[in-house]
Structures are given as structure tokens and as C-alpha cells.
Amino acid sequence: MSADATTAAGTPLVGLRNVSKRFANGTLALQGMSLDIGEHDFISFLGPSGCGKSTALRLIAGLTRLSSGDMHWSGAAAAGNKNGKTDRDLGFVFQEPTLMPWAKVFDNVWLPLKLAGTSRDAAAPVVKQALEMVGLSRFADVYPRELSGGMKMRVSIARALVTHPRLLLMDEPFAALDEMTRIKLNNDLLAIWREHRFSVVFVTHSVYESVYLSNRIVVMAARPGRVIDEIRIDEPYPRGEDFRTSSRYNAHCTAVSQSLHGALHGVDIDH
Fold first, then answer.
1. Structural domain total, the chain
2. pLDDT confidence of 1, banded at 50, 70, 90?
3. Would 258 be classed as within a structural domain?
């Protein structure tokens, strides 16, 4: 089977086992989440507000600690540390571009490498490659205020990819964009993902976006946040308007919508 359509065989890139997160105020944000993220997976987390999607992303990123359970990155033994993850294994794209307004586009993208001790000159070829990847080669010397919302998000994606991460985490990155820009960025993201073969975990509220992008959709319910269903989208890549307007796409959207309806009404799905 093509790696473009299925999870790569073998040891998962990241494994979560019965992971929970309870905040200091007593709120149980995430309960008993188990998930394997495979090499070259594109997984969407889908569910209502408060279901733990962003919390799960932050746990995977190491931005907050597990309350219970276990998380394991492949290669832990070789890396000689507990979780096997290095800073360069991971890229994170937030809902807002979070760019430095006083710095030009080049310097915003250089930031992760700068923090890792790479000089501007040494980083230049990699930064230029990342900007080319997102279609912004001509905008390296402009300031964020001169860019549209979609272009700012492209800079954020380039910054996340400049370290060549194994896993890209994306927290509703296109939610604030207009529909046409969102569709264009969906297509561009898929093209970059297919070419560079990293894994993606993508948080969204959109059934349509999750079906279009993903090979796996994790449906989550709130209070407490938990996984209630996982749906495979066994459709080939590349995907385009032919898929988006097909009866197969509509059928997948219907199935995911029905599962999401269960999440909204507190019904655990058992296939």
C-alpha cells in the first residue's frame, strides 16, 4: 500500500497510552487518550470546544505535563533520553501566526535555528528553502504588517518547517481565514506534506477540512475531553477539486458528521 494513503507500518512515531490531563483548578481536560501517530500520518483532531483537542496537542509538544498515562517517541533508546524527542523533531503552528512584528519575514523564519545557535549566514539556505516551500521567496525582506492573513500563516508554517521536523502540530491554523484562502492553503499544505514526508496532527472544527486533509480523523467529546471515535479516510493523494466534489467525499463527510453528532450529545461510538 502507498504511504500516501496509509499509516506507515512499524513502530509509531509517537504513542500515547491512557493519557490524561487535569488542571490545577480540578478541570479534567483530557481523559484516557490512547493514540499512535505513524510516520507520514495526517491526523485531524475534530470535536466541540472544550473536548481537549488543543490540550492533547500541547501534551504532545511537551508544552504541558501529563497528569497520568504515558507518551513515547520512537528512537528513545538511540537518543538516550526518556521520550526520544529533540527540539528539532517537532514544529508547531498556532491559530495566530505569532510573528515578531519588528522582524522581517526572513528573521521570523530563522528564529528556531537562531535559538538553536545557528548563525544567520549558515541558516540562510535553509530559510530560503522554507520560504520557497510556502511560496514566499519574494517576501523575505518585508515586515509582517505588509502581508495578508494567509501570507502571515505561510510564514508561520515556514518557521515551523525550517528545522525539518518529523512531526508538525497545527492548532486550527486556518480558522480565521476566508474560504478561498483556506482551500488554497489546504492544497499547499498537502503538497508540502507529500513531498517532505513528515507527520501532521491538525486541530480543526471543520468536518469538511478534516475529511479533505486527513487519512485519519480522531473525533473527541467534551466534559471530560476524550476520544470517542477514529475514522479512516482511505482515499488516495493528491486530492483536489475532483475529490472535494465527489460522492465519496460527501459520504465521508456524512459519516464524520454523524460521529461528531454523537460527540456533541455525549455518545461514545462503538464500531
1. 1
2. very low
3. yes
Is 147 a member of any domain? no
Instruction: Summarize pLDDT for 211-251 with one digit per residue, the tens.
Output: 999 999 999 998 889 999 999 999 999 999 999 999 999 99
- Domain hosting 256: range is 14-98+166-264
CATH code for the domain of 57: 3.40.50.300
> Quick one: three-class SS letters along the chain?
CCCCCCCCCCCCCEEEEEEEEECCCCCEEEEEEEEEECCCCEEEEECCCCCCHHHHHHHHHCCCCCCEEEEEECCHHHHCCCCCCCHHHEEEECCCCCCCCCCCHHHHHHHHHHHCCCCHHHHHHHHHHHHHHCCCHHHCCCCHHHCCHHHHHHHHHHHHHCCCCCEEEEECCCCCCCHHHHHHHHHHHHHHHHHHCCEEEEEECCHHHHHHHCCEEEEEECCCCEEEEEEECCCCCCCCHHHHCCHHHHHHHHHHHHHHHHHHCCCCCCC
C-alpha cell at 98: 505569532
- pLDDT of 267 reads 54
Q: Examine residue 174 and state whether it is found in any structural domain, yes or no.
A: yes
